[in-house]
Amino acid sequence: MIKAVISGTGLYTPPATISNDELVSAFNAYVERHNSEHADEIAKGEREALQPSSSAFIEKASGIKSRHVIDKEGILDPERMCPNIPDRPNDEPSVQCEMAIAACNEALKQAGKTAADVDALIVACSNLQRAYPAVSVEVQDALGIEGFAYDMNVACSSATFGLQAAQNAVENGSARAVLVVSPEICSGHLNFRDRDSHFIFGDACTAILVEREENVTAGQGFEIQGTSLKTKFSNAIRNNFGFLNRADKSGVNKPDKLFVQQGRKVFKEVSPLVAETILKQLGSLSLDASELKRMWLHQANLNMNQLIARKVLGRDATTEEAPVILDEYANTSSAGSIIAFHKNKADFSSGELGVICSFGAGYSIGSVVIRRR
Ligand code: CO8
């Protein structure tokens, strides 16, 4: 039987960063202007005053200290509060394609492979910058990969669901190697005027190369032991942006056409579901949680990750056991758990086990147990 191995990972990090203080200062300038423009209505009780945001709240509630973004200026302009990412002509690579190329090249280099060794590419992410042609086919062409490519979206679990698709393609023989790439431009769909969520997301792109075991140098990479995917419908995290928006006369600029969530509800409902999924999966592989060296968890909220890790291990996890990257990156949707993996895997010795686990909108959970070769 053919076995699938993760032989390389790559990461593209946009150079621009926004600290909590910078973000809060732009938000509060917007609040001040809004409240002074509507002072009469607020005084008469006809309109509610907007409340300021605070860096202390953001760090305490989420663990986020800063985020990387494609464009800083537009987000921090209180008049605009949206990134400036101009459209490009069709004969230039799209922004997502550019991010994907950088991450894929690093993954290929880490694996010691070239595009000629790859048969398929999946762009797996929360937001695609156009409907078609598929961004994946553009990336495939830019990298010079023969074979096939497709886009897929399972929100924050896109990369782990993509990993299972890659594992299947490698193990059933339809591809020698598959690149799973997650160009997440979360700032494009974040409502920077919403106090409850303006701090949550950042931008980044990850890539993972999945290959046949026989094509990977002995002792290199992580063998995929098993994947466990779960979905359960919920309205608690939504983004109603879509191609039918223009067909609704009330217009495309309503707040529900951007990211909206009931954060508390998500926290309460998803955390136990994630721990349960991991434990069940370990059981089905005849493994015990105590055998895990590391959990590379989705990076949405520090308190949530600490709770999930505690439920899985039966005790508090150390930061070595459940590494954190959301302090620097914020929530980068499907890229988050892969960034944690990319940055925290070099110390693994042969035979050691870990789990990559994503969770988010849908709800969707993707858990991938891997063993260092
Ligand atoms: N500054 C100051 N105070 C604030 C702020 C703020 N910015 N925001 C809220 N508060 C106040 C509230 O008004 C409230 O005050 P009061 O107690 O007086 O009513 C108090 O702080 C507490 O508010 P919350 O209950 O909302 O705060 P929480 O402690 O629940 O923290 C979090 C909010 C951080 C959002 C938390 O609930 C959380 O992280 N939950 C989990 C969320 C999660 O994991 N979501 C996953 C979503 S990711 C995903 O799947 C989407 C993928 C698609 C990507 C699309 C890209 C855009």
Task: Summarize this structure as a short list of keywords or feature phrases.
alpha+beta; two-stranded antiparallel sheet; 373 residues; Peroxisomal Thiolase, Chain A, domain 1; binds octanoyl-coenzyme A; 11 helices; nine-stranded mixed sheet; single chain; 13 strands
Task: Provide structural commentary.
Residues 286-371 form the Beta-ketoacyl-[acyl-carrier-protein] synthase III C-terminal domain. It holds the Pfam family ACP_syn_III_C. It comes from Marinobacter confluentis. The chain is an alpha+beta fold. It has a domain at 222-372: 3-Layer(aba) Sandwich (Peroxisomal Thiolase, Chain A, domain 1). The chain has eleven helices and 13 strands. The strands form three sheets. Strands 5-4-6-7-1-8-13-12-11 form a nine-stranded mixed sheet, with helices on both faces. β4, α6 and β5 form a beta-alpha-beta unit. α5 (95-111) packs across α6 (135-143) and α8 (263-284) runs parallel beside α9. The model has no long low-confidence stretch (mean pLDDT 96). The structure holds octanoyl-coenzyme A (CO8). Octanoyl-coenzyme A binds at residues 53-54, 57-58, 61-62, 126-127, 155-156, 186, 189-190, 195-196, 201, 237, 239, 259, 261, 263-264, 266-267, 300-301, 304, 331, 333, 360-361.
